[in-house]
Amino acid sequence: MxxxxxxxxxxxxxxxxxxxxxxxxxxxxxxxxxxxxxxxxFNGRFVMCFGWAYFFLDERKEENGxxxxxxxxxxxxxxxxxxxxxxVTVSLLVQNMQMEAVQKSNSKPEAVTFKDTVLVxxxxxxxxxxxxxxxxxxxxxxxxxxxxxxxDPNEENHSSDEYEKIPxxxxxxxxxEALRVLQMPIGTVAVITDNNLTALVDxxxxxxxxxxxxxxxxxxxxxxxxxQKAAEQKAAEQKxAESKEETDSSKNN
Length: 253
Fold this sequence. Notes:
The protein is of the alpha+beta class. The chain has helices at about 20-35, 90-105, 215-250; strands spanning about 1-10, 10-15, 45-50, 55-60, 65-75, 85, 115-120, 130-135, 140-150, 165, 190-195, 195-200. It contains three helices and twelve strands, in the order ββαββββαββββββα.
């Protein structure tokens, strides 16, 4: 578990994640610091909606009695409407996915939260090729997104009991790639094959750029190689420093 730590208004604040999601964590902590200049966030009741996710602050104590605050998020493995988790990994990963999609396509984001609903064709849940289409929401809490079968010959003839409305966080259970496009604007259509985004268009059917899975894996491999190289360099520098210390100690003796 990785710990991100900062001080806000003389309060020690920590975030815990399974991965080194430094930029995403930094954005959360920076926003908390900005809000703290205008409101009391250390009252045990603070809630912040940041993009798709919600974040909270929970007061804790060290063994020596010193106080600190933990940034929590909704617990998607339980009931995220009421349960919280110290592990913010999922919220940060989704944040990264959605920001990348919006920035790559040069689109203006339109907010969707984890609890906003999506209309889903039940038959599409386990299908290979599906699409998402966003229209104007009909009411508060409605994302405007529809999740259905690609090239569905019966799309106009499905009965009402063949559909269900689900909160968007449930995509975590069967199609995580759908989460990537949820902040895209009204009119957007996205095609997903298996669990890979394969096409993206705007409301005028103009193709939008997006990062392919192949490009994403290449980037991840490059990042890992760079991290490995940095770790090896650090280890080599440490070894040189230790060797120098031993040499200096020998000379002094």
